[in-house]
Amino acid sequence: MTAITIGIVDDHPLFREGVSRSLSEVDDFVVVGEGENSEDAARLAASDRPDVMLLDVSMPGGGIDAIGEILSKSPRTKVLMLTASEEIGTLSSALQRGAAGYVLKGIGSRGLAEAIRTIHQGSRVVSPAMHAKILESSLRAPDPMPDSLTPREREVMELVAEGLSNKHIAIRLNLQEKTVKHHMTQILLKLGVSNRTEAAVKWRQKY
């Protein structure tokens, strides 16, 4: 059986050590490195290229911001956010940046192992508690429409609807690609959708 290699980055040593010890007891899991901040996460991605990286949201340097750096250094690594944050906006930002999963720190060792296996196999994982929050929020909130977008976000959305990538949108609007990514994060949140395809569909329905 091929081992699944794992990196763990969290700024709470006792928690990190406990997770590492628990995962190391699973036959086909191998913890290849640990860290406590975004710089450590980038270093682990570059040096060890783990199959799965467990990442805290609130660690020094910011877990959300570390996702892109990790994936740029090790594109095959699957990022699993392991966090106490139950904010829907944080979940949306993490998935938009490229995280493959988002689970809460109250998860048990068996559930965490299952989540790791699931994202390693190519599927996405979101904690059931977060699914419930998303559903509750969608039931309370009115259906968001493109009218809530800023003028710049509307320009970006027009080009998304035409099928342009972030890179080509940046060129067309004379922006940096990371600025376009930021606009896309805000657009997805405002429209209440999870990806650019859904955003384009909602845009076309309105316009």
From TrEMBL:
This protein's name: Response regulator transcription factor
Keyword DNA-binding: yes
Modified residues (4-aspartylphosphate): D56
Domain HTH luxR-type stretches: 142-207
Domain of life: Bacteria
Family matches, as InterPro entries: CheY-like_superfamily, NreC/VraR/RcsB-like_REC, Sig_transdc_resp-reg_C-effctor, Sig_transdc_resp-reg_receiver, Tscrpt_reg_LuxR_C, WalR-like
Cleavable signal peptide: none
CDD domains registered for this protein in UniProt: LuxR_C_like, REC_NarL-like
Organism: Rhizobium grahamii
MF terms (GO), sorted A to Z: DNA binding
Segments forming domain Response regulatory: 5-120
Key words, A-Z: DNA-binding, Phosphoprotein, Plasmid
Gene3D superfamilies: 3.40.50.2300
GO biological process: phosphorelay signal transduction system; regulation of DNA-templated transcription
